[in-house]
Protein backbone atom coordinates (compact mmCIF):
# COMPACT_ATOMS: atom_id res chain seq x y z
CA UNK A 1 0.00 0.00 0.00
CA UNK A 2 1.09 3.53 -0.70
CA UNK A 3 0.89 6.08 2.14
CA UNK A 4 -2.64 7.42 2.55
CA UNK A 5 -4.30 4.70 0.47
CA UNK A 6 -7.29 2.65 1.55
CA UNK A 7 -7.40 -1.08 0.84
CA UNK A 8 -9.89 -0.46 -1.97
CA UNK A 9 -7.70 2.22 -3.55
CA UNK A 10 -4.65 -0.05 -3.38
CA UNK A 11 -6.54 -2.88 -5.06
CA UNK A 12 -7.73 -0.61 -7.88
CA UNK A 13 -4.21 0.77 -8.44
CA UNK A 14 -2.50 -2.64 -8.32
CA UNK A 15 -4.94 -4.14 -10.80
CA UNK A 16 -4.46 -1.21 -13.15
CA UNK A 17 -0.66 -1.50 -12.91
CA UNK A 18 -0.48 -5.30 -13.25
CA UNK A 19 -3.28 -5.97 -15.76
CA UNK A 20 -4.29 -2.62 -17.25
CA UNK A 21 -7.88 -3.11 -16.08
CA UNK A 22 -10.07 -0.53 -14.42
CA UNK A 23 -12.10 -2.25 -11.71
CA UNK A 24 -14.56 -1.50 -8.95
CA UNK A 25 -14.24 -3.22 -5.58
CA UNK A 26 -17.34 -5.14 -4.53
CA UNK A 27 -16.49 -6.34 -1.01
CA UNK A 28 -13.75 -7.59 1.30
CA UNK A 29 -13.58 -11.39 1.44
CA UNK A 30 -11.30 -11.77 4.44
CA UNK A 31 -7.91 -11.12 6.03
CA UNK A 32 -4.99 -13.54 6.46
CA UNK A 33 -1.52 -13.30 7.90
CA UNK A 34 0.91 -14.91 5.48
CA UNK A 35 4.71 -15.16 5.24
CA UNK A 36 6.12 -12.13 3.47
CA UNK A 37 7.65 -12.82 0.07
CA UNK A 38 9.69 -9.61 0.42
CA UNK A 39 11.23 -9.99 3.91
CA UNK A 40 12.16 -13.49 5.23
CA UNK A 41 10.83 -14.21 8.71
CA UNK A 42 8.18 -11.47 8.56
CA UNK A 43 4.44 -12.05 8.21
CA UNK A 44 2.25 -9.74 6.16
CA UNK A 45 -1.41 -8.94 6.82
CA UNK A 46 -3.12 -9.58 3.49
CA UNK A 47 -6.59 -8.28 2.70
CA UNK A 48 -8.51 -10.20 0.03
CA UNK A 49 -11.02 -8.22 -2.01
CA UNK A 50 -13.58 -9.13 -4.64
CA UNK A 51 -13.52 -6.75 -7.63
CA UNK A 52 -15.18 -6.62 -11.05
CA UNK A 53 -14.07 -4.90 -14.28
CA UNK A 54 -15.63 -1.51 -14.91
CA UNK A 55 -16.33 -2.41 -18.54
CA UNK A 56 -15.92 -5.10 -21.22
CA UNK A 57 -12.53 -6.78 -21.53
CA UNK A 58 -10.82 -9.21 -23.90
CA UNK A 59 -10.59 -12.88 -22.91
CA UNK A 60 -6.79 -12.85 -23.22
CA UNK A 61 -4.37 -9.90 -23.47
CA UNK A 62 -0.79 -8.81 -22.83
CA UNK A 63 0.11 -6.02 -20.43
CA UNK A 64 3.58 -4.91 -19.34
CA UNK A 65 5.14 -8.17 -20.44
CA UNK A 66 2.54 -10.28 -18.65
CA UNK A 67 -0.12 -12.52 -20.17
CA UNK A 68 -3.49 -11.76 -18.58
CA UNK A 69 -6.56 -13.94 -19.10
CA UNK A 70 -9.91 -14.99 -17.69
CA UNK A 71 -10.25 -18.61 -16.53
CA UNK A 72 -13.41 -20.50 -15.52
CA UNK A 73 -14.20 -20.07 -11.83
CA UNK A 74 -14.71 -23.65 -10.66
CA UNK A 75 -14.32 -25.54 -7.40
CA UNK A 76 -11.04 -26.92 -8.80
CA UNK A 77 -9.60 -23.52 -9.82
CA UNK A 78 -6.25 -22.78 -8.17
CA UNK A 79 -3.61 -20.05 -8.27
CA UNK A 80 -0.05 -19.78 -6.98
CA UNK A 81 0.59 -19.94 -3.24
CA UNK A 82 -1.94 -18.71 -0.75
CA UNK A 83 -3.38 -16.05 -3.06
CA UNK A 84 -6.31 -18.35 -3.71
CA UNK A 85 -7.24 -18.60 -0.03
CA UNK A 86 -10.68 -17.06 -0.60
CA UNK A 87 -11.57 -18.42 -4.04
CA UNK A 88 -14.42 -20.38 -2.44
CA UNK A 89 -15.97 -17.07 -1.36
CA UNK A 90 -16.39 -15.88 -4.96
CA UNK A 91 -17.58 -19.23 -6.31
CA UNK A 92 -21.24 -18.52 -6.89
CA UNK A 93 -23.64 -20.69 -4.93
CA UNK A 94 -26.87 -21.89 -6.51
CA UNK A 95 -30.00 -23.31 -4.90
CA UNK A 96 -32.77 -25.53 -6.25
CA UNK A 97 -36.16 -25.63 -4.49
CA UNK A 98 -38.34 -28.73 -4.23
CA UNK A 99 -41.42 -27.04 -2.74
CA UNK A 100 -44.33 -29.33 -1.90
CA UNK A 101 -47.91 -28.67 -0.82
CA UNK A 102 -49.32 -31.97 0.32
CA UNK A 103 -48.84 -34.27 -2.69
CA UNK A 104 -48.15 -31.41 -5.13
CA UNK A 105 -44.79 -30.06 -6.33
CA UNK A 106 -44.31 -26.38 -7.21
CA UNK A 107 -43.02 -25.89 -10.77
CA UNK A 108 -43.25 -23.26 -13.51
CA UNK A 109 -43.39 -23.48 -17.30
CA UNK A 110 -41.03 -21.33 -19.39
CA UNK A 111 -40.14 -21.59 -23.09
CA UNK A 112 -41.86 -24.96 -23.43
CA UNK A 113 -40.12 -26.63 -20.48
CA UNK A 114 -41.10 -27.31 -16.88
CA UNK A 115 -38.70 -25.96 -14.25
CA UNK A 116 -38.13 -25.98 -10.52
CA UNK A 117 -37.54 -22.62 -8.81
CA UNK A 118 -33.77 -22.13 -8.69
CA UNK A 119 -31.11 -19.46 -8.90
CA UNK A 120 -27.88 -18.01 -7.61
CA UNK A 121 -27.32 -16.69 -4.09
CA UNK A 122 -26.45 -13.04 -3.56
CA UNK A 123 -23.24 -12.28 -1.66
CA UNK A 124 -25.02 -11.18 1.53
CA UNK A 125 -27.50 -14.09 1.67
CA UNK A 126 -27.53 -17.46 3.38
CA UNK A 127 -28.56 -20.45 1.29
CA UNK A 128 -31.94 -20.49 3.01
CA UNK A 129 -32.56 -16.78 2.44
CA UNK A 130 -31.63 -17.09 -1.22
CA UNK A 131 -33.92 -20.11 -1.64
CA UNK A 132 -36.92 -18.25 -0.23
CA UNK A 133 -36.17 -15.22 -2.43
CA UNK A 134 -35.84 -17.29 -5.62
CA UNK A 135 -39.13 -19.08 -4.96
CA UNK A 136 -40.91 -15.77 -4.36
CA UNK A 137 -39.33 -14.08 -7.40
CA UNK A 138 -40.05 -16.92 -9.82
CA UNK A 139 -43.47 -18.07 -8.61
CA UNK A 140 -44.84 -15.45 -6.21
CA UNK A 141 -45.14 -18.01 -3.41
CA UNK A 142 -44.06 -16.49 -0.09
CA UNK A 143 -43.32 -17.88 3.34
CA UNK A 144 -41.99 -21.32 2.47
CA UNK A 145 -40.76 -23.51 5.32
CA UNK A 146 -37.48 -25.27 4.64
CA UNK A 147 -37.42 -28.90 5.82
CA UNK A 148 -33.88 -29.98 4.97
CA UNK A 149 -31.09 -29.97 2.41
CA UNK A 150 -31.53 -32.85 -0.04
CA UNK A 151 -28.13 -32.74 -1.75
CA UNK A 152 -24.97 -30.66 -1.70
CA UNK A 153 -22.33 -29.78 -4.29
CA UNK A 154 -20.64 -33.21 -4.36
CA UNK A 155 -23.81 -35.20 -5.02
CA UNK A 156 -25.10 -32.72 -7.60
CA UNK A 157 -21.74 -32.72 -9.39
CA UNK A 158 -21.89 -36.53 -9.60
CA UNK A 159 -25.36 -36.30 -11.18
CA UNK A 160 -24.85 -33.38 -13.55
CA UNK A 161 -21.08 -32.79 -13.77
CA UNK A 162 -18.96 -30.01 -12.29
CA UNK A 163 -20.04 -26.50 -13.17
CA UNK A 164 -19.31 -22.89 -12.34
CA UNK A 165 -21.65 -22.87 -9.34
CA UNK A 166 -21.70 -24.67 -6.01
CA UNK A 167 -25.23 -26.08 -6.04
CA UNK A 168 -27.52 -27.07 -3.16
CA UNK A 169 -30.97 -28.68 -3.38
CA UNK A 170 -33.56 -28.18 -0.63
CA UNK A 171 -36.99 -29.55 0.27
CA UNK A 172 -39.42 -26.90 1.47
CA UNK A 173 -43.16 -26.89 2.11
CA UNK A 174 -45.87 -24.29 1.77
CA UNK A 175 -49.48 -23.87 2.84
CA UNK A 176 -50.03 -21.05 0.33
CA UNK A 177 -53.62 -20.91 -0.83
CA UNK A 178 -52.84 -20.54 -4.53
CA UNK A 179 -54.94 -21.82 -7.44
CA UNK A 180 -53.77 -24.93 -9.26
CA UNK A 181 -52.13 -22.76 -11.97
CA UNK A 182 -51.37 -19.05 -12.33
CA UNK A 183 -49.25 -16.60 -14.34
CA UNK A 184 -46.49 -14.73 -12.56
CA UNK A 185 -44.29 -11.84 -13.71
CA UNK A 186 -40.80 -12.54 -12.40
CA UNK A 187 -39.36 -9.97 -9.99
CA UNK A 188 -35.74 -9.32 -8.97
CA UNK A 189 -32.76 -8.25 -11.07
CA UNK A 190 -31.53 -11.51 -12.63
CA UNK A 191 -31.69 -12.71 -16.21
CA UNK A 192 -35.35 -13.77 -15.82
CA UNK A 193 -36.47 -10.47 -14.30
CA UNK A 194 -38.70 -9.43 -17.21
CA UNK A 195 -40.16 -12.87 -17.87
CA UNK A 196 -43.64 -14.15 -17.21
CA UNK A 197 -43.95 -17.71 -15.98
CA UNK A 198 -46.95 -20.01 -15.78
CA UNK A 199 -46.66 -21.52 -12.29
CA UNK A 200 -48.50 -24.33 -10.62
CA UNK A 201 -48.26 -27.70 -8.97
CA UNK A 202 -48.67 -30.92 -10.92
CA UNK A 203 -49.58 -33.92 -8.76
CA UNK A 204 -46.35 -35.37 -7.38
CA UNK A 205 -47.22 -38.75 -8.92
CA UNK A 206 -46.98 -37.35 -12.47
CA UNK A 207 -43.15 -37.13 -12.68
CA UNK A 208 -42.69 -34.03 -14.88
CA UNK A 209 -39.48 -33.92 -16.89
CA UNK A 210 -38.02 -30.57 -15.69
CA UNK A 211 -36.35 -29.48 -18.90
CA UNK A 212 -34.51 -32.73 -19.45
CA UNK A 213 -32.83 -32.86 -16.01
CA UNK A 214 -33.11 -35.80 -13.66
CA UNK A 215 -35.40 -35.42 -10.65
CA UNK A 216 -33.15 -35.42 -7.61
CA UNK A 217 -34.05 -37.14 -4.34
CA UNK A 218 -37.73 -37.37 -5.25
CA UNK A 219 -38.47 -39.91 -2.54
CA UNK A 220 -36.61 -37.79 0.01
CA UNK A 221 -38.92 -34.81 -0.51
CA UNK A 222 -42.10 -36.89 -0.54
CA UNK A 223 -42.69 -36.76 -4.31
CA UNK A 224 -43.05 -40.11 -6.04
What's the SSE blueprint?
Elements: H1 7-19, E1 23-35, E2 43-53, E3 60-63, E4 66-69, H2 87-90, E5 93-101, E6 104-105, E7 107-110, E8 113-115, E9 118-120, H3 127-139, E10 145-151, H4 153-160, E11 166-173, E12 181-185, E13 196-200
Parallel strand pairs: 5-11
Antiparallel strand pairs: 1-2, 3-4, 5-6, 5-9, 7-8, 7-13, 10-11, 12-13
Describe this structure in words.
- By secondary structure, this protein is α+β, with helices and mostly antiparallel strands.
- It has two domains: about 5-90, no CATH class; about 95-210, Nucleoside Triphosphate Pyrophosphohydrolase (Alpha-Beta Complex).
- The chain has four helices and 13 strands.
- Strands 5, 6, 9, 10 and 11 form a five-stranded mixed β-sheet that branches. Strands 8-7-13-12 form a four-stranded antiparallel β-sheet, with helices on one face. It has a two-stranded antiparallel sheet with strand order 1-2.
- The longest helix has 13 residues, at about 5-20.
